[in-house]
Amino acid sequence: MSTTVMLAQLLKGMVVTAEIFFLTLIFSLPLGLFISFGRMSKNSIVKGISKIYISIMRGTPLMLQLIVVYFAPFYVFGLKISNYRFPAIIIAFALNYAAYFAEIYRAGIESIPVGQYEAARVLGYNKVQTFCRIILPQVIKRILPPVTNETITLVKDTSLAFVLAHAEMFTMAKQIAAKETSIVPLMVAGVFYYLFNLIVAWGMERLEKAMNYYR
Amino acid sequence: MAQNSKVLLQINHMRKCFDDVEVIKDISLSVREGEVVSVIGPSGSGKSTLLRCATMLETMDAGELIYLDENAAWEENGKCVYASKAKLREIHKNFGLVFQNFNLFPHYSVMKNIIDAPVIVEGISKKEAKERAEKLLAQLGLSDKADAYPYQLSGGQQQRVSIARALALQPKILFFDEPTSALDPELTGEVLKVIRELAKEHMTMIIVTHEMQFARELSDRIIFMEQGVIQAEGTPDEIFSSSNQRVREFIGKFQS
Q1: Which pick of A161, B115, B177, B181 has the fewest CB atoms within 10 Å?
Q2: Domains plus CATH for chain A?
Q3: Would the ipTM clear 0.95, i.e. be above it?
Q4: Is A122 in contact with B149 (Cβ distance < 8 A)?
Q5: Which residues make Cβ contacts (< 8 Å) with residue A190, sequence separation at least 6?
Q6: CB contact (8 A) between residue A116 and residue B122
């Protein structure tokens, strides 16, 4: 196999990796916010369920979660869903990352001084206005560093999709490496992951700088 | 102050407990339009709690709270009941509160801090809100700070912005919770000056303060609180020449 063919295949895998990455973020970031609300709820049932959810998602391997999400519909419920492989990957990733994001949101929300809520309340803001206009913008600034951490981890975690034999970059690299009995494809994949993360880190740094107009 | 002017705020038999500690024990108080009332007393006497209950940041355990003849809270079967959310929203418009720690919104510029509530809550146009804000900033000597962010301002400037923010909603009563306690003496002066000017314009104000001299010169009435009750109440002259032992001791400490 020529180098160009290998690179082309890995790049194709890279596109799939990027798909998993972006779709996971799109779903898990808002979902995490809802779970953090549940986690902070005054209703002890809602709070308990959220805690258990977070505990399981963080306490079991993502690889196992991928397998469960993919196979459970058939083996547990007898459902046959066509073209389920890719959705299963996104669902598992989103559910898992939402648990981590929920705890990051919670830390951010709880770090906002109570005076901000009180000022908003006395000025007549309702709860939604207070959260969206006063609290959330400040939370986002505060949680950017831990979110960057998670995001970088996610880039690398996408490789776990290989357990469902989906054609993302790591799966491709392993297949080529086995066929060619060469470690080079894996090394190249490593470089691609690294470059991807350089871009992610650069983007997040830009975002942090953009939020630096206030302290 | 005219004794026949309108009563803006009426508190009857307010009680408030935190856990098992009764912080406010049966306090009644009325404030008339144009009056400046200072609340003094040692730390832990319940002054701030009184203010927080009056501004509904805390819910009282018993008593009545009435703003301009509108009941915000009353007693029913021995329990304190608050008015509906919609009603309370209306009642809220009557007063503003200036915090000890300013509590400005750090992610908003000075201008945005001032115009956001009028636009969002009151629903006036951005243009009108801006005009209002510019007037206030000029009045408080902050015209050149409209585009600054709170972290770029001194404590005194931040407190003046928070006063402007409260005034932008055109409240009938303005509460101050130790407005200068977080400031050094130099910055304290510039904030007191603003409050003095508001008093001249007959703004109705209730001020919890440790600035005795200021309370004396500015207030129409001083309330001395201790252990959750009003120990003494009267004109500054009455309070400063009070025969009440505790009042004398407390004021004495500040005059030495």
Answers
A1: B181
A2: 3-211 (1.10.3720.10)
A3: no
A4: no
A5: none
A6: no
